[in-house]
Amino acid sequence: MSMVQEPLGAGFGALVEDVALADLDAAAFRQLYALWQRQHLLVFRGHGLDREGLLAFGARFGQVDPLPDLGAGETRWGVDLAWTERPPFGCLLHARQVPESGGATWFACLPAALRLIAPDLQARLRWLAVQHGPNVHPMVIMQPETGEHSLFLGSRRESRITDVPIAESERLLNIAWSYGTAEAVTLCHPWQRGDIVLWNNLTVMHRHDAAPAGTSRKLQRARIQGRYTLAAPIEKEAA
């Protein structure tokens, strides 16, 4: 099948319209999966899925955890469950109810952010690890399925770089986050009712604007369970 796509941002994200996701055969799904690997984030319109259909579609990518709907509140930049040993591999949102304007969701592409960083600073970051809660992850990871190198920042709150003084940890994290949320690597998604967004939770951060006062937003959520322990490129190259 031919899958028409429209680029969404500079270097990542694609809009896929009028594809019946419930009817994808194995070959079409492989094509879609390869597109997701390249683009990191896909937006679907005219897909024909209901609530149960979203979970069935997500299950083709891995074990799915359904979650309570997301409401109208604002959230900060981050990835889901960064503090776990194997963070979720992907995330899904389905717009069930959205305001006429406002309440957008923002996404940031972390492989693109890494490419913005000067080589000497990249070399420093590749040897560092960040603690998120009880677990420690490399600051620069190798995307396990494609081999692409990416920052992995998790969430800013209560994270720190291990084995360096606190002041140095804060300095380096501030620098890394400035690249990770730079305008050049972010895109804003204004929701239309029915939109589905699928993104790689290891390579894309997100945040939500609050819905305007007096309006509501209801986004059906699901996660694709993590199946990879994150590894740094330097470890792979040395193995």
From TrEMBL:
Instruction: Output the Pfam families linked to this UniProt entry.
Output: TauD
Residue ranges of the TauD/TfdA-like domain? 6-222
- Kindly indicate whether the keyword Oxidoreductase belongs to this entry: yes
- Keywords in alphabetical order, please: Dioxygenase, Iron, Metal-binding, Oxidoreductase
Per the UniProt entry, what are the Gene Ontology biological process annotations, in alphabetical order? sulfur compound metabolic process
Q: Which domain of life is it from?
A: Bacteria
Answer yes or no on keyword Metal-binding.
yes
Molecular function GO terms recorded: metal ion binding; taurine dioxygenase activity
Cellular component per GO, a single term: cytoplasm
InterPro entries found in the cross-reference section: AtsK-like, TauD-like_sf, TauD/TfdA-like
Q: Which family does the similarity line name?
A: Belongs to the TfdA dioxygenase family.
What is the name listed in the Swiss-Prot or TrEMBL entry for this protein?
Answer: TauD/TfdA family dioxygenase
- Lineage summary: Bacteria, Pseudomonadati, Pseudomonadota, Betaproteobacteria, Burkholderiales
